[in-house]
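Hi, here's the filled form for the chain we discussed.

Project: internal
Contact: R.S.
Residues: 595
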Amino acid sequence: MGYMHKYLDVDLSSGKIHERKLDQELAEKYIGGKGLGARILYEELKPGIDPLSPENIIFFMTGPLTGTSVVTSGRWCIVTKSPHTGIYLDSQIGGKFGHRLKRAGYDYVLVRGKAESPSYINVHSEGSEILPATEYWGKGTFETEEKLKEKHPKSEVASIGPAGEKLVTFANVMTDTSHIAGRGGSGAVMGSKNLKAIVAGGTFKIDAVNENFKELTRTFRTKVQNDDGVKSRNRIGTMIWVSMSNQGGFLPTRNYQSGVFEDADLISGETMIENHTYANRACYGCLIACGKANKFETGKYAGLDVDGPEYETTALIGSNCGIKDLAAIAKASKMCDDLGIDTITTGATISFAMECVEKGYLEQNDVDNLVFGNDEAVLQMIELIAKKKGLGDLFAKGTKSAALKIGHNSEEFAIQVKGNELAGVEPRGSWGMALAYSTSDRGACHQRCWTPTAELRGDLPRFSFDGVPEFVKESQDERAACFSLVLCDFLPFNVPEMVEMLNTATGFSYTPESYLTVGERIWNQTRLFNTREGITSEDDVLPKRFYKELMPEGPAKDQVISAEELEKAKQKYYEIRGWDSNGIPNSETVKKLEV
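And the returned structure, exactly as it came back:
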């Protein structure tokens, strides 16, 4: 089966819900999740619309393997036009919501328009409806989810917090307490529609076309259980990268002024596991269980009980803000989750503000001692940003917007690409990520291509662009296909295995080559969307800091990204992709890939 063969089209403006048939031909061409959402978004939206207007649409997407017996099949994604960048956005998310949406009988939910008053959508196999959400408006995501689950037993909830309601452009969508569609501002899109939450529940079975599917996935599950990388993720989770990044010289530190944090040991995964972790957390159907529940017994934040923090949060709110107290980082993470804002952009934005204060470009106003290392100032800023109050209002659209207002050439150290703040890898210490960040379809992103592992183990040369364009292109294509299935970054697999499971679940007849071609088709689809919105080669660049300032210390000491060499790598990447020198897919490529 793979698909439920129908979707919901919800018009909040009219209050009408229509059940429609899935376009099976389009599904086979784009698989689901990211791919199918990207295609329909391109067809449905007029160029240049305001992402926070009723004209924007937002998709809550599953894939053909969502909710099946494949490991990590709890994944789903949100697709929309980003209010943070003004370009294409898909945001991948775990938890249990995707499984429940599928069991409600739908492959995805498309939401358009704007409700007159705060509302939520209840999606259920016995009937779907738009319901009032006034009593939840202004509440955090934790309370919202708790109350809606009480009202709708055996359901899962995806909701926004105050930041989404206030239209903070990097507001996120939360589900299952600690699972986040974080980047790009999908929460603000929901807020602009007066949509507080979506509830999903149902009793439909999710079956495969071929009876061999369960045996196939059982064999794969055994492989996953025995994988060394999975065992490591199960033990430490994403936090394993704090020590690895610091030792590699690419842990973002004090607004990317360095790639080495002198107190990294205090905020490392090893320290977390030894002193604070008491349980593992897992998404639906996942045995990797990379999430960690932590309790802090002593110190300023004694009594804090939280799921997380994850690596990216720790890198951006921790070392990048000069914070060496793991409990403070965990407290900040929990605040962001409840208020509904992306921890990566939040940390990067606050660190930018700290450097502006340090350089004398910014008055602190209503924040006490906004300097690197002050965890209380970080917590103050999180609250102010999420509620767009005082100094927080200046930074509620991220670093790019704030730099334009602050001036003093501060855009040179406003660390973003296409408006999206960089993630937890310093590109002077990982040249592969320099090209990956530059060419990502949603602005700077670590999920489209991850080069540090290849660089550390010697599969890619360090401090060189040799082989990088090919690696980045191939990784982006593969991830685009995987995020259409929808499966997890952390799953150890090879493409033939994925193709066999996809074919067995759906009855398709993909080969590994044709599957990767789908990924390439999807990547070109998102590029066409972005070029239509005005993106050119001039936008595929890094902040000037990385071109002008030598790395001051560590394994990447004295490294700097050569703008000329990065441009050569970028043009090589365009050539491999069949794009012109301005980064626009040429007509032959579009025709060949049937975009």
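Let me know if anything looks off before we file it.
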